[in-house]
Amino acid sequence: MPLPEQQLQTSQEEPLPPGHAAPREPADSGDIKGITKREIIDIEERAQPRTPVIYEVVRRTGEEELARPAVSLWWSGVAAGLSISFSLLAQAVLQTHLPEKSWTPLVVAAGYPAGFLLVILSRQQLFTENTITAVLPLFKSFTALNLGRVIRLWSVVFAANMLGAFVAALFFAFTPALSAELRDGALEISRQMLMNSSSEMFFRAIPSGFLIAAMVWLVPNADTARFHMISLLTYLIAVGGFTHIVAGSVEAFLLVLRGELGTGPLVGRFIMPVLAGNIIGGTVLFALISYAQVMREI
C-alpha cells in the first residue's frame, strides 16, 4: 500500500487539461496537503483578481481610449447619445401601460437600464464612463500631455453625446415613430426630472457619477454577470431620482423642442450642474479613491 507522500506525488503527475500551462506553486502550498495541479488551476481561476489588477485593466482601457482617433471617438459618442434614448423610451412604454399606483415608479424605473445596456455592451463612448477610465492614466502620470489628452477625449465625447441625444429628442418630438400616448409618457417622465432646482440637480448628479464609475470598475470582474450588474446600478440611478448628463439630456432636449423649457434653464439649471456633479462623483470621488487604494502597489 503506497505511503501518503507517494499518493500525493502520483496525483500531481496527472496530465494538465488542454490549453493550460503549468501553474505557479501557491505561496502556502506547503501547508495544504493533497492539492493536485488541476486543483491549483481551479483555485487560481476561481480567485478574484486583486485590486491592482482591476485598476490596471481599467487604466489600460483608458489608455486605449485616449489613443483613439478623434473621428472614432466622435461617431462612437454620437451612437451612445442615440442609444441612451432607449432608456426614456422604455420608461415611457411602462408609464403608459401601468396604472397609477404607489409602486408604479419602481416598475417604470426598470426601463431606465435599457439605454445603458445598449451603450455599454456595444462599447460605445459614454461621457460618464470616461470620468474614471480616462483619468486613471492621468493620475499615474500627471503631465501636460496627458491632461491635454483627457480634455480632448472629454470634449469630443461630450459634444458627440449631446448631438446624439438631441437627434433622438428630435425624432421623438416630430416624427410619427411614437404614438401620442408614448410621447405623452416620455414628456411626463421628462417633466419630473426638470422639477428639480439647479442645486438639487448638482447634488443628485454626484451619486449618479459615482455609480457609473463603480460600474466601470466592476465590469472586468463581472464576466457573465455584466448584464445584471449594469441593470442593477443604473436602476438605482433611476429609482433614486439621481441625474445623469447624457440620459437626462434626451429628456431636457425633448422639453425644449416641445416649448416647455428655454435654452437658458437648459444650460443653467440642467447641463452645467449635472455635468459638474457627474464629474465630481466619477472622478473626484470614485476614481481618485480607487487610485489611492493601489498607488503604493503599482
The topology string of helices and strands comes to: HHHHHHHHHHHHHHH
What portion of the residues fall into strands of 2 or more residues?
A: under 5%
| Biggest pleated sheet | none
Radius of gyration: 24 Å
Beta strands, count = 0
- Residue stretches low in confidence (pLDDT < 50, at least 5 long) are 1-14, 16-31
* Structural class estimated from helices and strands: mainly alpha
Can you put this structure into words, describing what you see?
- By secondary structure, the chain is mainly alpha-helical.
- It is built from 15 helices and no strands.
- Helix 14 (245-257) packs antiparallel against helix 15.
- It starts with a helix and ends in a 6-residue tail after the last helix.
- Mean pLDDT is 86; it is low at 1-14 and 16-31.
Key terms:
mainly alpha; 0% strand
Could you give the topology of this structure?
Layout: H1 4-12, H2 37-46, H3 51-67, H4 70-83, H5 85-97, H6 104-108, H7 113-121, H8 130-133, H9 135-140, H10 144-174, H11 180-193, H12 198-218, H13 226-239, H14 245-257, H15 263-292
Summarize the structure.
The protein contains 15 helices and no strands. It has 298 residues and is mostly helical.
